[in-house]
Amino acid sequence: MGSSLPMEKLDKSNYASWSYKMHQYLLGHGYWSYVEGANDAEPDATHRNFPTWEQSASRVMYYFASSVEDQLRNYIRDAKTPKDAWTNLKRVFTASTTIRKMQLRQEFSNVRQKDLSVANYIARIKEICDSLGSINMTVEEDKMVQVCLRGLVSRFRSF
Which is it for the CA torsion 13, 17, 19, 21, positive or negative? Predict the structure, then answer.
């Protein structure tokens, strides 16, 4: 397993996508139990399993630190366990606050294709909708289509 993670870094706009990919990555490499809490209890430093636990927990914390933008690292820096770090990030990004709702609604309303490929543009819309869904706000399919068509570059607006 290499030291680089096969995903984009977590930033203010991609939590739904990042958390799904990180979950799959950790699950596939046998580390999800450190986030889930099954391996959350740190053994006593004198316990024979402590070095293994510490190494695995540190590896997960390294993955987190390597996969978040610099300004978000503060949310995980003081976490004692991978579970605490995950919980801190989840709390920040899934908080159902008025400001977060307004920010995501604004992003959704203003999303434009610009220089994105059609596939990446659709993925961006889906990502915003997933983020809205993570705070219990659903976007109806016809609204997604409307926003998608409105934001296409001019060469696609002939329909």
Answer: negative
pLDDT at 74: 92
- Report whether 2 contacts 118 (CB < 8 A): no
- Which pLDDT belongs to residue 2? 47
In this predicted model, what pLDDT tens digit does every residue of 36-79 receive, in sequence order? 877 666 666 666 777 787 899 999 999 999 999 999 999 999 99
- Looking at the whole model, is its pTM more than 0.70? no
Q: Of 92, 29, 107, 15, nearest to 62 (Cα)? A: 29
Residue type, 26: L
Cα–Cα distance measured from residue 134 to residue 82, given in angstroms and rounded to the nearest whole number: 21
**C-alpha distance from residue 146 to each of 19, 69, 109, 128 (Å):** 27, 32, 10, 14
Angle at 110 between CA 16 and CA 151, to 5 degrees: 100
Task: Note the Cα 128 to chain centre separation in Å.
Answer: 12
With CA atoms as reference, report the closest residue to 133 among 24, 152, 125. Answer: 125
